[in-house]
Design goal:
With 199 residues, this protein is of the alpha/beta class. The chain has helices at 2-7, 14-28, 66-75, 114-123, 159-169, and strands at 37-41, 58-63, 82-86, 99-105, 125-136, 171-184, 187-198. It is globular and about 45 Å long.
Length: 199
């Protein structure tokens, strides 16, 4: 987690903020018009989760990086609708349940066993809730300059891999689409949005 602890104070950029607005609009197409109990997994500084705290909505942000959560907590210190938790879902359980929206952006490739975490998220989902995952489409390992030290365990995920998660977790994949492309290293790296609901 040292990489993220060191990067936390300079993590927020105008480009990331703009992308978070875009992602939230895409996700909102699959949400019902009701107050939302939101969980952001791998919340970082809360850029994406912040897009969903209007009205009566509330947000719980969880992360394994204390540095990121320090920035998150300072950002939302005057908002009683927002809480955070330092927790690793790979080996710990979350007591809160019945989330209408569980969202995660660019965090799943840092999980050792993403399929197992998805199963845990299923148990935290409200009856008509959705799980929205944004991450890299399968790539050749060149996206991160130092994958090992940056805690990268997967070089993105193919649509076929996501479909296998759907079956193993007992979920239904409602949608899968490319929502952004990052250009660097003279290559294009597509990012997908996958929407899961209870089967």
């Amino acid at each position: 987690m040292e990489h993220f602890n060191q990067a936390a104070n300079t993590w927020d950029t105008p480009e990331k903020a703009e992308l978070s607005v875009h992602y939230a609009r895409e996700i909102s197409n699959y949400l019902k018009d009701q107050p939302l109990h939101v969980l952001e997994v791998g919340c970082g500084t809360g850029l994406l989760g912040a897009q969903f705290i209007q009205g009566q909505n509330n947000l719980l942000g969880i992360d394994t990086s204390k540095g990121m959560l320090d920035v998150f907590n300072d950002k939302f210190k005057n908002n009683p609708q927002v809480k955070s938790r330092l927790i690793n879902l790979e080996n710990e359980n979350l007591s809160e349940k019945n989330f209408h929206l569980i969202v995660s952006s660019m965090a799943f490739h840092h999980l050792v066993h993403p399929e197992e975490v998805l199963k845990k998220l299923k148990d935290l989902l409200a009856a008509e809730g959705i799980i929205a995952i944004i991450d890299l489409d399968q790539e050749d390992g060149s996206f991160h300059p130092d994958p090992k030290n940056m805690g990268v365990h997967h070089f993105g995920f193919s649509q076929k891999r996501l479909e296998s998660w759907e079956q193993s977790a007992g979920l239904k994949m409602l949608a899968w689409k490319i929502v952004h492309t990052i250009h660097k290293n003279e290559k294009d790296y597509p990012l997908f949005l996958a929407i899961f609901t209870l089967a």
